[in-house]
Amino acid sequence: DAGVTQSPTHLIKTRGQHVTLRCSPISGHKSVSWYQQVLGQGPQFIFQYYEKEERGRGNFPDRFSARQFPNYSSELNVNALLLGDSALYLCASSFVGTLQETQYFGPGTRLLVL
Amino acid sequence: DAKTTQPPSMDCAEGRAANLPCNHSTISGNEYVYWYRQIHSQGPQYIIHGLKNNETNEMASLIITEDRKSSTLILPHATLRDTAVYYCIVRVAHAPGGGNKLTFGTGTQLKVEL
Question: How far apart (Å, rounded) are the C-alpha atoms in residues A35 and A64?
Answer without folding.
Answer: 11
